[in-house]
């Protein structure tokens, strides 16, 4: 942490390895700390806070989400919480567009075909691996983006979709000034709707809500069954928001076209035989 190095008034203790911090190391070294700077992989609960002791004044996580921190325990002990809500907005919005493009254009299947050396033997066809294009096809010129969670990242993603010809937006949370946003981006409409409408009207659904009990498996089999057959699901928030088993089932049955996943429930412990790893789309 270069910004703190050389500060003689600070006794700095840093996890020395380029991997997730070992919990036993954290428990040992938290003792007497005035502040903890953590990652999303570090679970901060009563055990860690007890180990740190009464001198702990702040916990700061290098992440947008903070569901790995027991905020109620922090509040009981008058410990401040810091997080980084803006730092990755543009980067995650870029990833959302990338995943939507890759999912719609069968990037996983086609990359595997080339990387495994099977392209020379593969039978060519005029519409081989064609999928739904992200941009609005002429002459319809109409695309609808759906969002579960409509904060900074969602709005940055929506702005990136405008040049692709998206004309409408529906979202399932976060009441906002719809008319002002629609005018600023040149969209026909931006509407707050229920989740069923997000599923049924969207060409691409972007999952960008916080994690936690209230959003657990918000994208379940019922939601997926209401999506368009050529619809694409993108999750760049938390894996717990999407029921992995339901998604694998619906993909296998052709209920939706594809999914672009930056996160999966249970990560990083995702085995090679995980149904979503095996699923070509």
TrEMBL record:
Gene Ontology cellular-component terms listed: cytosol
InterPro entries in the cross-refs: D-isomer_2-hydroxyacid_DH (IPR050223), D-isomer_DH_NAD-bd (IPR006140), NAD(P)-bd_dom_sf (IPR036291)
Gene Ontology molecular function: glyoxylate reductase (NADPH) activity; hydroxypyruvate reductase [NAD(P)H] activity; NAD binding
Domain D-isomer specific 2-hydroxyacid dehydrogenase NAD-binding: 97-280
Keywords: Oxidoreductase
Protein name: D-isomer specific 2-hydroxyacid dehydrogenase NAD-binding domain-containing protein
């Amino acid at each position: 942490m270069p910004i703190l190095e050389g500060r003689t008034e600070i006794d700095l203790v840093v996890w020395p390895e380029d991997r997730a911090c070992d919990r036993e190391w954290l428990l040992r070294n938290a003792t007497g700390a005035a502040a903890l700077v953590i990652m999303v992989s570090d679970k901060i609960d009563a055990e860690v806070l007890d180990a740190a002791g009464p001198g702990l004044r702040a916990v700061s996580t290098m992440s947008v989400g903070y569901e790995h921190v027991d905020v109620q325990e922090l509040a009981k002990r008058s410990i401040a919480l810091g997080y980084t809500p803006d730092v990755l907005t543009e980067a995650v919005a870029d990833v959302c567009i990338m995943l939507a493009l890759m999912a719609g254009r069968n990037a996983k299947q086609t990359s595997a075909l080339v990387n495994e050396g099977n392209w020379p033997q593969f039978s060519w066809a005029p519409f081989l691996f064609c999928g739904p294009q992200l941009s609005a096809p002429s002459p319809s010129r109409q695309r609808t983006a759906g969002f579960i969670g409509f904060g900074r990242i969602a709005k940055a993603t929506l702005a990136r979709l405008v040049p692709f010809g998206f004309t409408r937006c529906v979202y399932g949370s976060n009441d906002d000034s719809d008319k002002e946003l629609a005018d600023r981006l040149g969209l026909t409409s931006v509407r707050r709707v229920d989740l069923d409408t997000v599923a049924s009207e969207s060409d691409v659904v972007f999952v960008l809500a916080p994690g936690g009990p209230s959003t657990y498996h918000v994208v379940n089999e019922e939601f997926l069954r209401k999506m368009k057959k050529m619809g694409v699901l993108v999750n760049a928030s938390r894996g717990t928001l999407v029921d992995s088993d339901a998604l694998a089932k619906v993909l296998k049955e052709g209920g939706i076209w594809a999914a672009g996943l930056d996160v999966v429930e249970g990560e990083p412990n995702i085995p090679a035989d995980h149904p979503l790893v095996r699923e070509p789309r």
